[in-house]
């Protein structure tokens, strides 16, 4: 068995980014930038008013009250074309360009108007309520770096920069192949010795949430012909993930059958609980990750290994799981030689931190406990015992890999 750290290193070093494509910014949210984005215009393009009021020269309102002649108005999209002289003002509205000769905005609340004469009751320093040209960004300035996952905020920024199209990494296609005569899909007729196939649904949801595209190849029967034939569906995928069939039983055929099809094994079995029978290799040029059959094992292995691999496929740096501090509500015994990921739930708070309780039954087949769990408590090999009230680090399941 190899360590979790070594297994992750081997997987990530074998993964390469997928190809890129150009998409409209309307379709770019959630995608990973393949090239840096540079502003194509200056924003704002000229000095603008930040308030409704009057555009004036600051020197004309140095002594208050000041009476000025109103010679026109400036509105957003309809600027005042003339020039403003001494003793003059222009009625102006939010977002409108400052007329030539003005440098300050007097808000309308600080004025009284009578016909074409406005009396300024409160003065203002030069530049008050003025949005200077380029205060947001300037043409040619770098805006977004390659490798960034685009948010709705980024879409707004690019639109303001007059960028209609962007180069992004295409969504990696991950082929999922479940194995086992005992498996049937939800809703299908269920034999006395069969169970519902859940792993592909869980892993597919994680892939889609992370930004990839899951391709469900179906359920291969426990025979060589079925497995070989169905695995061919992964030929054009960016990665093949098998679910089950990676252990040591007579019916665990993935390694032996796919070995005849060119599978080169990098490692098989890691010092991890749950997830010991994890397999990784290359199947005729396609990276292959062989997940354990137990649902908890496959989900945790997806968090630890598949999501960082997806990051690289999508052109971004692999993220580390984000941990937060918490307090133990009970003692935890010393760990053995395998790195352990204990399912736990938050049962309260103590000293401003979540108070957690690990489940007494950590069996890797228990989907009910997995659904109820809020977090994982990771225990290194041979970790010392932990005491009730001790501070620990936990991995929140719904935010294990927050976008940064």
Can you give a write-up of this model?
The protein is an alpha/beta fold and 404 residues long. It is elongated. The protein contains seven helices and 26 strands. Helix 1 crosses helix 6 and helix 3 runs parallel beside helix 6. The longest helix is centred in the C-terminal third of the chain and has 19 residues. The mean pLDDT is 92. It has four domains: 157 residues, Molybdenum Cofactor Biosythetic Enzyme, Chain A (3-Layer(aba) Sandwich), CATH 3.40.980.10; 55 residues, Molybdopterin biosynthesis moea protein, domain 2 (Alpha-Beta Complex); 84 residues, Molybdopterin biosynthesis moea protein, domain 3 (Molybdopterin biosynthesis moeA protein, domain 3), CATH 2.170.190; 77 residues, Beta-clip. The two termini are 33 Å apart.
State the distance separating the first and last CA atoms.
33 Å
Please tally the β strands and state the result. 26
CATH architecture of the largest domain: 3-Layer(aba) Sandwich
- Specify the overall morphology: elongated
The number of helices is 7
CATH fold-level label of the largest domain: Molybdenum Cofactor Biosythetic Enzyme, Chain A
Task: Sketch the major β-sheet.
Answer: 6 strands, mixed
Proportion of beta-strand residues: 25-35%
The CATH homologous superfamily of the largest domain is called MoaB/Mog-like domain
The unreliable regions are: none
Strand order of the biggest β-sheet: 7-4-6-5-9-8
Query: Which class of secondary structure composition applies to the elements?
Result: alpha/beta
Radius of gyration: 31 Å
Indicate the mean pLDDT. 92
Query: Helical proportion?
Result: 10-25%
Just give the CATH class of the largest domain: Alpha Beta
What count of domains describes the coordinates?
Answer: 4
């Amino acid at each position: 068995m190899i360590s979790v750290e070594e297994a992750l290193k081997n997987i990530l070093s074998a993964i390469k980014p997928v190809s890129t494509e150009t998409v409209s910014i309307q379709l770019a949210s959630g995608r990973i930038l393949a090239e840096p984005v540079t502003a194509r215009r200056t924003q704002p393009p000229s000095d603008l008013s930040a308030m409704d009021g009057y555009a004036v020269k600051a020197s004309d309102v140095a002594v208050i009250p000041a009476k000025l002649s109103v010679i026109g108005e400036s509105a957003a999209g309809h600027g005042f074309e003339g020039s403003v002289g001494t003793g003059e003002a222009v009625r102006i509205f939010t977002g409108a360009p400052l007329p030539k000769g003005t440098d300050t905005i007097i808000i309308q609340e600080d004025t009284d108007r009578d016909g074409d004469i406005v009396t300024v009751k409160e003065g203002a320093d030069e530049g008050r309520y003025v949005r200077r040209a380029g205060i947001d960004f300037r043409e040619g300035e770098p805006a977004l770096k390659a490798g960034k996952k685009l948010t709705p905020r980024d879409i707004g920024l690019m639109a303001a920069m007059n960028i209609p199209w962007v180069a992004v990494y295409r969504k990696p296609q991950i082929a999922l192949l479940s194995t086992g005569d005992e498996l049937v899909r939800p809703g299908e007729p269920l034999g006395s010795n069969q169970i519902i196939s859940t792993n592909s649904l869980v892993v597919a949801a994680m892939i889609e949430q992370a930004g990839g595209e899951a391709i469900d190849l179906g359920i291969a029967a426990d025979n060589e012909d079925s497995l070989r034939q169905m695995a061919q569906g992964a030929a054009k995928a960016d990665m093949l993930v098998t679910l089950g069939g990676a252990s040591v039983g007579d019916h665990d055929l993935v390694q032996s059958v796919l070995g005849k099809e060119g599978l080169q094994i990098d490692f098989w079995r890691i010092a991890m609980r749950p997830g010991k029978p994890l397999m990784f290799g290359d199947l005729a040029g396609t990276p292959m990750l062989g997940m354990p059959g137990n649902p908890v094992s496959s989900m945790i292995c997806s968090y630890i290994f598949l999501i960082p691999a997806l990051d690289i496929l999508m052109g971004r740096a692999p993220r580390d799981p984000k941990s937060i501090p918490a307090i133990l509500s009970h003692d935890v015994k010393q760990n053995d030689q395998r790195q352990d990921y204990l399912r736990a739930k938050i049962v309260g708070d103590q000293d401003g931190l979540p108070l957690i309780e690990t489940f007494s039954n950590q069996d890797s087949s228990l989907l009910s406990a997995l659904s109820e769990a809020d977090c994982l408590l990771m225990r290194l090999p041979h970790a010392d015992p932990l005491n009730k009230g001790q501070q620990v680090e936990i991995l929140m399941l719904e935010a294990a890999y927050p976008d940064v």
